[in-house]
Amino acid sequence: MTLNPFLVAAYVVAIAFEVLLPLIIGYYIHRRFGVRWRFFLYGMLVFFLSQLITRIPLVQITQAFIAPALKSSQTLLYVWFAVLALTAGLFEEVGRYLGYRFLIKNDRTWSVGLMYGAGHGGLESMLLIGGLALLGLINIIALTTTNFSQMNLPPEQLAQIEAARQQIAGLAWWTPLLGAYERFITIFFHMALSILVLQCFLRGSLWWLGIAIVLHAGVDLIALILAQLVSVTWVEVALTFTLPLSLGIIYYFRPREIQQEPMAAAA
Question: Residues 78-99: what's their mean pLDDT?
């Protein structure tokens, strides 16, 4: 099987984009508003704690137990989608709130919220999405360049390998770029959610946390349901609406005179 060089190039571009985009956004916020990088790291820490070592393992364990039921019941599958979406909103937004509560006590400003959100979405982009894309690229190279016919493999395994090769052959060369596009949209969504949760402290109401949870869960649920109905390309097209929504939230809560923000964050 011939390795598609355009597919490989698209993977390389997508991985580089998914890793570099958060850093570029963080650098811009640092240079433009004088926000220190530690707030970016706080955002990364919150995502790591709220997703990678808590929610995701719990989801994987639970899904392993209920997998047969999910395959046999469409209704249960959609209920599970709702659970996935709601837990994503709860874990990440409550984690974001706790980060503000215990890590960011004296620098709760709009610009710090942007950096905090960029770090949160940044780790997801760099490690989870970029990392999975890298593993996918390695797998594609291995499957397309290895001569499995010379190996003493059982027929069942050879059939699985051939099926995987057929899937690879059916991929459009630009498929990996969809993941990069999604990260472009999503990182601004995380920044907007961080700004919403920040309002809990600036405006003294937990309603903002509830709004962030519902918004996060709602977008995730839409994505999960659409993935069952249309191709991944149309899912990303449909989710484009979150970009103007995110930018609108960020702009709406922007201080009138950003230059007058407390400069403690740059100290």
Answer: 98
How many C-beta atoms surround the C-beta of residue 100 within 10 A?
23
Q: Which residue has the tokens 């090769």?
A: 165
Cα gap 99→116, rounded to integer Å: 9
By C-alpha distance, which of 219, 210, 189 is closest to 94? 210
User: What residues contact 151, with CB distance under 8 A and at least 6 apart?
Assistant: none
Residues 203, 209: Cα–Cα separation, whole Å = 11
Closest to 213 in 3D by CA, of 112, 116, 36, 91: 91
Amino acid letter for position 40: F
Q: What is the pLDDT of residues 173-200, one digit of tens each?
A: 999 999 999 999 999 999 999 999 999 9
> Could you read off the pLDDT of 103-122 as tens digits, one per residue?
999 999 999 999 999 999 99
Q: What angle do CA 88, 93, 98 make, to 5 degrees?
A: 130
**Predicted confidence band of residue 145 (pLDDT cuts 50, 70, 90):** confident
Closest CA to 250 of 187, 201, 204, 205: 187
Say how far apart CA 49 and CA 123 lie, in whole Å. 11
The answer to whether the beta carbons of residues 63 and 9 sit under 8 Å apart is: no
CA distances from 45 to 98, 118, 207 (A): 11, 12, 24
113's enclosing H/E stretch is: helix 110-123
Q: Please give the radius of gyration of the chain, using alpha carbons only, rounded to the nearest integer.
A: 21
Model pTM score: 0.92
Convert 124-136 to b/e letters by CB count within 10 Å (16 or more is b).
bbbbbbbeebbeb
Identity (one letter) of the amino acid at 44?
Answer: M
